[in-house]
Design brief:
This protein has one domain: TIM Barrel (Alpha-Beta Barrel). It has 17 helices and nine strands. The protein has a five-stranded parallel beta sheet, sandwiched between helices. Strands 6-7-8-9 form a four-stranded parallel beta sheet. It is of the alpha/beta class.
């Protein structure tokens, strides 16, 4: 099963590039940019990755991002992630980035987007891995600041496919960002949002009805409301579920209690993703492996999760079909 998962063609749809910052690279960039970290060893950093909630994680996440200063730093961060994609047969990835995390520190938007997008281009050329970028607004900041970010992104419109909404969920409902999402959609961005990770089902309703999102990031708490589950199925909207993230942030207390199998049984379209893998103990294949063992998922289950990752990606239909065909050929070999 581990071999099956490792070589399975798949896509990743919920990945924060800042959340792939490995401790070793953090130290390397801190030294390069002469930034003093509150840690002296890799082991110290890893010990700090003990979270009781989303906010615990965010505090360390934003602290780690302080080492990202130059375009080369963002390039190195992103290209390192693509090397992981190559190892795990991730054929396509949709990368979220948080410009406000950096512009608030005085880092130009241009520095962030150019470093990330150049790594994407090189990964396509060198590894054959396709990718696109999702610009996420930080929901703990104001609508005004989100509008400023949208304005800063305008010269780089060709490099960004979609917008997202992340950071502290509770107390920052989707309704706070209706106008900026409307403006972004008018500019041609595809709307996505984190909803129902720590917020309740009402946050998901708002994201669907007010922000008109085309995909739900996380969405665990849709199970609180049977009518919402029916609505998500009716609209054929996928959930980008992040099992090891849910475990690390205490959204679930045991991976054996993860709701993904129940979601599939109810008819929800779900995908498996790693979210912030450096902080949460595993990249995409590790998420698949832990789920498979805990919930006794079959190859058919895993195949369908991978198929959903292509089907509900933001790729053109022709590209989706090509990747699904590759996946089908791979799966059929296991049926012989």
């Amino acid at each position: 099963m581990e071999h099956f998962i490792k070589n399975l063609p798949k896509a990743e749809l919920h990945l924060h590039i800042e959340g792939t910052l490995e401790p070793e690279l953090m130290f390397e960039l801190a030294k390069r940019n002469q930034i003093k970290l509150p840690y002296t060893t890799v082991e110290e950093i890893k010990k700090a990755y003990q979270f009781t909630c989303l906010q615990d994680f965010l505090d360390i996440y934003y602290q780690g991002a302080q080492v990202l200063i130059r375009e080369q730093d963002f390039y190195d961060l992103t290209y390192q992630y693509f090397k992981k994609c190559l190892e795990q047969n991730i054929r396509h990835t949709e990368i979220m980035f948080d410009p406000q995390t950096h512009t608030h520190r005085g880092i130009p938007f241009e520095t962030v987007i150019n470093g990330i997008s150049k790594a994407c281009a090189d990964a396509k050329k060198n590894f054959g891995i396709s990718s696109l970028l999702i610009m996420s607004f930080l929901r703990h900041l104001s609508e005004k600041e989100a509008f400023l970010t949208l304005e800063q992104a305008r010269p780089f419109r060709d490099k960004i496919t979609a917008i997202g909404l992340d950071s502290s969920e509770k107390g920052n409902p989707p309704s706070k960002f209706v106008r900026v999402f409307e403006a972004a959609v008018e500019e041609g961005y595809i709307p996505l949002a984190h909803a129902g990770e720590e917020g309740d089902a009402e946050y998901i309703w708002e994201a669907l009805d007010l922000l008109q999102i085309e995909r739900i990031d996380h969405g665990n708490n849709c199970l609180q409301d049977p009518n919402l589950v029916e609505e998500i199925i009716e609209r054929d909207i996928a959930l980008t579920v992040c099992p090891l993230s849910n475990l690390a942030l205490k959204v679930v207390t045991d991976i054996k209690e993860h709701p993904i199998k129940k979601m599939m049984q109810l008819g929800l379209s779900v995908t498996v993703n790693s979210d912030d893998p450096s902080y949460f103990g595993g990249y995409l294949n590790k998420n698949f492996e832990e789920l498979q063992k805990a919930l006794d998922l079959s190859r058919w289950n895993i195949y369908n999760l991978a198929k959903n990752s292509f089907k509900y990606s933001l790729l053109e239909e022709e590209d989706k079909n090509t990747l699904i065909e590759e996946l089908n050929h791979y799966y059929e070999r296991y049926l012989i």
